[in-house]
Amino acid sequence: xxxxxxxxxxxxxxxxxxxxxxxxxxxxxxxxxxxxxxxxxxxxxxxxxxxxxxxxxxxxxxxxxxxxxxxxxxxxxxxxxxxxxxxxxxxxxxxxxxxxxxxxxxxxxxxxxxxxxxxxxxxxxxxxxxxxxxxxxxxxxxxxxxxxxxxxxxxxxxxxxxxxxxxxxxxxxxxxxxxxxxxxxxxxxxxxxxxxxxxxxxxxxxxxxxxxxxxxxxxxxxxxxxxxxxxxxxxxxxxxxxxxxxxxxxxxxxxxxxxxxxxxxxx
Length: 267
What we know:
- The protein has 6 helices and 14 strands.
- The protein is of the alpha/beta class.
- It has a single domain, classed as Metallo-beta-lactamase, Chain A (4-Layer Sandwich).
- A hairpin with a 5-residue loop joins β1 (about 25) and β2.
- The longest helix is centred in the C-terminal third of the chain and has 15 residues, at about 235-245.
- It is globular, with a radius of gyration of 17 Å.
């Protein structure tokens, strides 16, 4: 199992103490990120357990996180709404709230999370936290699977920190109209899953599709995710780098190592 470049109390303190005049991101493996801007600390799709098949060790446990303001989960699948991770963060961060698609509320409650710790959302709705805003757009798991009562069960989040917008796609395949939905938000950093589509696994973007989406929405930065869970995944990210350098030389990109923090450059 691959060890993160930073972990444990050292990494938690780094997140807590970092001065963030521009937004800073830490990759926690899989689709998990910690995001910080000024005093706001958000976690998106944190998976802080060593799940079967995971190639990179979780950098710390959810129960060690005492500083979370919001935990954003894009959908109810256990690698995105991990019971141990989310319950641990909410217990250790008593003021934190869980932001989830409204269709996932019953599932989260069944995991032991009380409704008063949840904020439910849906496409085109906005969640406000401190001076920041979180918008939602649909993500497609082959289809959008919208229902009148549940809305969209799979979401991507757009976190608006000052003049910067971070898009986290969750699990998603390209679909007609996605770029049109994202373009008005002037995405600064697009976090997109690149593990592709194969029989028996949840489909996601192929790496060239992720690069095309970044171009279509004029994202300043593209960062791949969801490539560290399976034995073939190292090749995926290496191919991503080769593709970007060979075919998309004008597109800036950032490849994270698990546990690594990165501040969005000022321009």
